[in-house]
Specification:
Blueprint (H helix, E strand, L loop, with lengths): L1 H10 L4 H22 L1 E2 L3 H21 L7 H10 L8 E2 L10 E4 L3 E4 L10 H4 L5 H20 L8 H19 L4 H21 L1
Helix pairs in contact: 1-6, 2-7, 3-4, 3-8, 4-8, 6-7, 6-8
Length: 204
């Protein structure tokens, strides 16, 4: 999907139908994982762990990109906000979900691969129940990542609007299966998008 999306972003081709289908498939994967492996109630410890993880990611990113130091108050505010919003039950997720983890299979559609979690996370953490919003946030970041990639190409293309349309289509597809998210769910996804962006800084 990464290569397909890059071509679409560079040419400005409409990718919203495919993005919506990907959102549907993503929600179906989450439903199947919850059915097969069950869910886990949210605990205060899980909330604290996410806040701690976001702080650690920010510290690591700021150490590599000193300009990020000026954003400490904003990052801290977003990190702390995840303690106050309502969380859904935790469950097994993909864990490293982005366009490079999905294949477009003829006569079948999108197929997700490599349910191994983020490479920089310890293996014991990768298999722990987590928020499905982490996968959603990862794919949203991936559309932005595609737009950023074509902006840095030899012949730069502004794919900002393309990415925004894909992101909304993906969310619409996901909501058609999982239900329309409330304000708490939206806030949680946005926080996890930041978490993923900080991860990307370190990974790159």
């Amino acid at each position: 999907a990464w290569r397909v999306a890059l071509v679409a972003a560079a040419s400005g081709a409409d990718f919203t139908a495919r993005a919506r289908d990907l959102g549907v498939v993503t929600a179906e994967i989450h439903t199947a994982l919850a059915h097969a492996l069950g869910t886990t109630p949210v605990t205060p410890e899980a909330r604290d762990a996410l806040v701690a993880s976001m702080r650690q990611r920010y510290a690591a990113a700021a150490a590599l990109v000193p300009d990020l130091a000026s954003r400490s108050a904003v990052v801290e505010g977003i990190a702390l906000s995840v303690r106050d919003v309502r969380w859904p039950a935790l469950q097994r997720i993909h864990g490293d979900y982005h366009l490079g983890q999905v294949l477009d299979v003829p006569e079948r559609g999108w197929v997700a691969l490599d349910f191994e979690g983020e490479p920089l996370r310890p293996l014991a953490e990768r298999v722990q129940p987590d928020l499905t919003a982490r996968d959603v946030a990862g794919m949203l970041r991936s559309f932005d990542y595609a737009a950023g990639s074509v902006a840095l190409a030899e012949s730069p293309v502004d794919a900002t609007a393309w990415a925004a349309a894909c992101r909304q289509a993906f969310l619409d597809g996901y909501a058609s299966v999982a239900g329309v998210p409330d304000a708490d769910a939206v806030a949680l996804t946005r926080a996890l998008e930041l978490d993923k962006a900080l991860y990307e800084v370190v990974y790159e």
